[in-house]
Design goal:
Order of helices and strands: EEHEEHHHEEHHEEHH
Number of strands: 8
Structural class: alpha/beta
Helix content: 25-40%
Shape: globular
Length: 198
């Protein structure tokens, strides 16, 4: 055994009722449309994403949202890669009723994968654009897309794309001190174009 000049540290017993630390992010209480967009972004390097699996039930997803105080869950596959997302609007809107009508199943039998927005339909913002964007750009983007949330991706050192952050219309509105009107739509820009015949 190699001797070192490092004395051991003093230890003690863990006290009952001890919690644990987690990543934290504090938002500025008040921002304006001219503040940096990053001031209103939930940064997943500083806050743990709330996640769920495609095989979990919609009821489990809703319970997790309520428990964690969020309105969006990232859906991860068995490799912990993002395979979709599910929002409170998905769960509380028409999607579950359509699945029930099509399959003749019960609500508790509906899975996250049945109503989530799959990865191939998720539109994302680039983190490089966010660094130079203002809060006003985010508000305009959410309103133009008719969405309550926007996902931000960043390319890593090896070229792999990672979800870096999330924008929530509710969070942005809270920080701005105003109501942001967005009409949540469960379709992509390309689907809108198809409906308009463009």
């Amino acid at each position: 055994m190699v001797r070192t000049a490092y004395p051991s540290l003093t230890s003690s017993l863990l006290q009952p009722g001890t919690g644990f630390s987690g990543p934290t992010q504090s938002f500025s209480e008040h921002v304006t449309l001219d503040h940096p967009a990053i001031d209103v972004m939930t940064d997943l390097q500083r806050v743990s994403a709330v996640v769920i699996r495609p095989i979990d039930s919609v009821n489990e997803a809703h319970e997790r949202m309520v428990r964690r105080g969020v309105r969006l869950l990232l859906v991860l596959n068995h490799d912990r890669k993002v395979t979709g997302l599910i929002t409170a609007t998905d769960i509380l809107g028409e999607k579950p009723m359509k699945v029930i009508a099509q399959r003749g199943c019960k609500r508790e039998e509906i899975l996250v994968s049945d109503i989530m927005t799959p990865q191939e339909r998720l539109e994302v913002l680039d983190m490089n654009d966010i660094y130079s964007a203002k809060v006003g750009h985010i508000v305009a983007t959410l309103q133009a897309a008719g969405r309550q949330h926007a996902m931000v991706v960043e390319r890593g050192t090896h070229g792999k794309t990672m979800v870096r952050g999330l924008f929530s219309a509710t969070q942005v509105a809270r920080q701005l001190g105003v109501v942001i009107q967005t009409t949540e739509v469960a379709r992509t820009f390309s689907e809108i174009g198809a409906q308009l015949g463009t």
